[in-house]
Amino acid sequence: MIQLRKRPKIYLKEGAQTKITPRIKKLAEKIDGEGLEFAFNLLIFLQKHLRNLYCSPKKYQEYLKNYHLRKTADEILTERLAPTCGEKALIFAAICRAKGIPAKIIEGALYEFLKDQSDEHVRTHAFVEIFVGRRWYLVDPSRGLIGVNKTLQTFFPPYAGWEPLWEGLDFWDMGFFDHETFMKQAVEFKRKWKKTKKR
To answer: How much is the pTM?
Structure first.
């Protein structure tokens, strides 16, 4: 549905939610490698460094209501608590930009959710695209995957099973400042998407 902007320099800028703070700069300097090697090593670091939230579904919903999309990348990194895909995407994108790698955040919706008659279970996911060697690579920071492996053999096609919804420097750049607004916009996108498919 969206036309992905391909101008790399735009995505070297910091957003209000992804400011390149001294903490983020220091971490970018700490991770070894350049280009894709840096991205792979950063994913490994984040998998080890960040904590998930293990709690009841009710507690998790409370977390989403009170904190989801409200924190900056630096705040998330300080707390080391990143239970959502969006939080991991924010940190990954901010650190890549600090390294000089253009990075855009993409929010996608699962096709199953878009086709479902019910709006009860919103199913979206945050990806990051990074620009290395004159091309964009799709990254899933939450799952620790890049669109190619170290021998440059593709192991998952771009957005397989997902419809890209929005892109930006970060979620605040996309206009999302809290969980409730995001969920409403996802459902609204679904309704518009269904109308276009009926034409």
So the answer is: 0.88
